[in-house]
Amino acid sequence: MERPRRIAFLSEHASPLALLGGADAGGQNVYVDEVSRNLGRLGYAVDVFTRRDAADAPESVAWAPGVRVVNLPAGPPRPLPKDDLWPLMPAFRDALLRFIAREGARYDLVHGNFWMSGWVATELRGRLGLPFVQIFHAMGKTKQRHQGAADTSPAGRIAVEGAIVRGVDRLIAQCPSERDEMVDDYGAPPERVAIIPSAVNTEQFRPMAREEARRRIGLPADGDELVVAYVGRMLPRKDVRNVVRAVALLRRRSDLPVTLLLVGGETVEPDPIRTPEIGALQRLAAELGIADRVRFTGKRQPDVLRDYYSAGDVVVTTPWYEPFGLTPLEGMACGRPVVGSAVGGITFTIADGVTGCLVPPRDPEALADRLHHLLTAPELRARMGRAARLRVEREFTWPTVARRTAALYEDLIAGRGPHPADGAAVHDSGDLVAEPPTAP
Ligand code: UDP
Question: Which of 11, 60, 237, 372 lies at a 20 to 30 A Cα distance from 316?
Answer without folding.
Answer: 11
